[in-house]
Design a protein that fits this description.
With 79 residues, the protein is α+β, with helices and mostly antiparallel strands. The chain is built from 2 helices and 7 strands; from the N terminus they run E-H-E-E-H-E-E-E-E.
Length: 79
């Protein structure tokens, strides 16, 4: 699946776009986060990490397939 990382998540994954193999079966957002935390441990240290699937924010129970586009959205600060 194609993963797009923004902000500090991009710094952690090393690129804006990452091809990620979560296996042949659909996975939940929660399962994907666990797989990503295993590969990129610094992601787990973020205060929050929102996930969007196909341009829509997704809860942990949303199922994802290899055809989906996933965005990693870290905490945002501003003033």
């Amino acid at each position: 699946m194609k993963i797009i990382s923004f902000g500090v998540a991009k710094e952690i994954t090393g690129d804006l776009f990452t091809e990620f193999d979560a296996g042949p079966d659909p996975v939940s957002v929660a399962e994907l986060k666990k797989l990503l935390f295993d590969q990129f441990p610094a992601l787990e240290k973020l205060a929050t990490l929102s996930v969007a699937v196909n341009n829509t924010y997704a809860g942990n129970d949303v199922m994802i397939t290899g055809e989906d586009e996933v965005a990693l959205i870290p905490p945002v600060s501003g003033g």
